[in-house]
Queue: 2 jobs
Job 1
Amino acid sequence: MTPPETGPTGDDPRMVAYRTLAAVTEDDAYANLVLPRLLDFHHVTGRDAAFATELAYGTLRLRGTLDAIISAAARREVSAIEPAALDVLRLGAYQLLRTRVATHAAVDTSVSLAREVVGHRVSGFVNAVLRKISQKNASDWLDTLVTGDETTDLALEFAHPEWIVREFRKALNDEAEVVAALGADNDAPEVHLAARPGLISTRALADEAAGRRGHWSPYAVHLSGGAPKDLPAIRTGRAHVQDEGSQLMAVALTRAALIGSEDDRWLDLCAGPGGKASLLGAIAAEHGARVTAVEVSPHRAELVAKSTSGLPVTVVTADGREFESDELFDRVLVDAPCSGLGALRRRPEARWRRSESDVPALVELQRELLSAALRLVRPGGVVAYVTCSPAVAETTEVVSAVDGNVERLDIREALPDMPDLGPGPSVQLWPHRHDTDAMFGALLRRPIAG
Ligand SMILES: C[S@@+](CC[C@H](N)C(=O)[O-])C[C@H]1O[C@@H](n2cnc3c(N)ncnc32)[C@H](O)[C@@H]1O
């Protein structure tokens, strides 16, 4: 984008972007929560807000690659640079390599910012490093950093940690697709809304939001900009923000074929913050069913209660592994806690926060939650196992590890007309194929006997 005309001092969009980075680096904050508050606090709006958002999100996404370039230009490890100066350098390098901000403006504003947030003593260093970076474009810098190792070089080119490149490779088995998937994580996605059935039609929501209907979910509306929280349909609980892939997984559960006619007790075993529970609740209302929504975190259980208010949903704060109920359920959703590698395009800092060593504990929890779901579903009822991760250890391997007698249903039958769903019976969606988050879904039916 073309940068707004802002001078080297009193530069609020850059200050907002810097403070967002600092909150993420120092306080483990989430950029999507901190940035809107900082924009309000600094009264940054319109084009300046769009510029601050691009700087903050773009810099956070590309952090690993920017750090490699900063380290080469500064001739030292980034760990030897003080954190506040490093954040200023990252923002400056992003402007130089990825935006149309003029070199002198990117360097001068960064030097002023460094002076303001760190002190005079670092301004010479920031100036020298950014001037060095400005001598080459992004592609020439990548050429100087190339190692010859395919994983390392892809990780650098697309700004992902190497372990995530390896996970995508295991899941996709096709190098051109790995490149496409990594690239898709770096494109800022549109906001997706779900029109709650029975409360607002998808067409009416698209008109109100000046958006367009989604590709696959009957409830999806895509927005190219704007603030969804200000829409009347969101404020009055007739719609909510939810990636179209997440909508599809909830919809697939409601369409799965049961054995037997009972179909009014639905369970969401990992419900917080309530996106799928809300959509399930609205569909349940139309079918005369009720949803029990279980969530272990009290704070997230409150979010579920808020988001499902007015719908036939009962929220229970409990560990899904130990949840006990007098009745068995007809349909059960396990939207398991996961590494989140499928939603990296929506969470700019997430790829640098997770590590490979987080996965085994998540897999154990996922297996336990899936076994609990299979205990809680009635004979002939269906469990949907869903993750927003494409890592095979969290997806197909969890499902294949289920012991005992379960019938695998082909979830593709519940997602008709969607292309590129693979050989089944489970599906892995991808941003580069479906313009959704990389959601995984599998359907397991408990046999009548056994
Ligand atoms: C992927 S999120 C679910 C997203 C949610 N279904 C939605 O669409 O908004 C996983 C949720 O599981 C919760 N969780 C983690 N461990 C749990 C457990 N043992 N029992 C129940 N919920 C758990 C997490 O707190 C988190 O809210």
Note: The pocket of S-adenosylmethionine is lined by residues 246, 270-276, 294-297, 300, 319-321, 335, 337 (CB under 6 Å).
Job 2
Amino acid sequence: MGGAEPEKAAPRRFPAVLRKRAASFGYAFRGVGAALRTEVHLWFHAAATVVVIGLGLYCGLERWEWAAVALSVGAVWCAELVNTAVEAVVNLVSPDYHPLAGRAKDVAAGAVLVMALAALAVGLLVFGPRLWAWAVDA
Ligand SMILES: Nc1ncnc2c1ncn2[C@@H]1O[C@H](COP(=O)(O)OP(=O)(O)OP(=O)(O)O)[C@@H](O)[C@H]1O
């Protein structure tokens, strides 16, 4: 009766923020999983990634070489995932033929091509001399 209301405890925002971040990670992993399920050529990238890591371990790469290889592999995956996302959005908004839809898909595919060529250059620079030396010695 007229007494002061007991103060409500302030909402504990920090754990909520953490939960939201964790959920975002979950969505991101779900996205990678969905892309892997729907895009067959990502399996080629997965196989290539395993081969490159195996070759790197076998060759005993230097630390900086691992950095270059990791960045290249990650960048190609990143370009492929963005390309997959662009394709999905284009298919959603323009299921019928439209020159702009085609251009968007072509440009996204071009981004993958550019990154794949750059990764190939890194691969040749890092592994090329070793493979050449083995071929000559054999
Ligand atoms: N809605 C569209 N309008 C115009 N051109 C399109 C459209 N959809 C696709 N294209 C053209 O066809 C090409 C291939 O499209 P598609 O959706 O089959 O891509 P993709 O790279 O073969 O993808 P994936 O094989 O991964 O499904 C595009 O790069 C684009 O030139």
Note: Residues 121 and 138 are 24 Å apart (CA to CA).
